[in-house]
Write the structure tokens for this entry.
Amino acid sequence: MEELELATTDAPPHWDRAVVTLPVLGFLSLIGGQLPSYSTRANVYTICVGGAMLWLGLTGKVRRPLPGRLGPGTTWWLLPIGIFGVFEGSTFLLGSTPDFPTFSRLADPLLEDELLRTAGYFVWLSSFWALVRR
Amino acid sequence: MSLTRAIAIAGFLVAIVACAVVEVLARRRDSTIPTLGEVCAHAIAYEVGRVPVGRIGFFGFWWWLGWHLFAR
């Protein structure tokens, strides 16, 4: 069983290459970027695409081996995460109003533009793919 | 634009820039700082017993984030 798991992590599928996955993610983003917020199509599409990613991630079909131990500098990551958390948390608790906007409230008007929406969709999907391969 | 709104925007920008700076520092030769991908890999690998809590948490959150930004 352990050998089988090692073989699975050591040998990614033949289609798991940037030349294959990037065009696919780009095509999926083009479709997602055309679907307006609050529409049934956008809900169904995002749930299906995200669900497929979730399934790939949980089955471990494209998982890579875990990198070595984390170094002592890991705590540096608490700085950007902490700053973001303080502003997101406080604006959320203050009601996410125009005067106290959360990150997503600031992003909403930008994502109304189809080009930016498609680019944002691509960033979301490609980072989801990067997480799934971890 | 109100002062509080400007402060909020500045705060998010500072967080994004700080993230980019730490990532650049992590990619230097002999750096003791891991890259964001390496940190995520270890967090994702977290399990409680046989339950892949890290995978479920990370993928579930990222799924919800996409729905929150692009569908709702």
Q: What stands out?
A: The longest helix of chain B spans residues 3-26. DSSP finds three helices and no strands in chain B. Chain B touches chain A at residues 2, 4-5, 8-9, 11-12, 14-16, 18-19, 22, 25-26, 31-34, 36-42, 44-45, 52, 55-56, 58-60, 62-63, 65-72 (CB under 8 Å). The mean pLDDT of chain B is 94.
